[in-house]
Amino acid sequence: MSSGVLPMRPSQRLLSESEWRPTPSASTLDPQSTLSGALMRRVRRMAGRSNVSWMPAIQGRLQELLLLSNGWDTYGAPPIDRWTAAYASSLLEVLAEEWTLPPNVMPSTNAGVILEWLRPNVVVRITVDPSNELDLYYSDARVGFTWEGPLTEEAPDLSEALYRVSVAR
Known about the structure:
By secondary structure, the protein is an alpha+beta fold. The protein is 30% helix and 18% strand.
């Protein structure tokens, strides 16, 4: 007897609880990656330990993004990569503090995820792509500062940027 629900294609399958916190492979989380070795070690150690109240809603939003099909943007964008969504979730669990605002979570046209915090005069945007590279855009117009590029040791302190956007008025 049919339930009337079509089965999901493998690329549309929602993530299981264990897939939300994948065991990072050495090839994606080595100290030479674009994300600093210290932050990567923290991602491994802290994944799954966030207690911020908005995390379940963000994980629900990431699950929604996984349902996007090929061409979701009407220009042929691929579906969101499920491991990229899991990586973004793990990253948020590490970065989130009780004072951190919840990010806007959006799909990117390269199968990645965009995490964005917006306040008047302050923007923090992290783009997570399927190769696990992270790009940061940080702008604080109150002090005339803008930075854009890969999230490496040379990038501004991400915790400081998230604090500034969270307390901006």
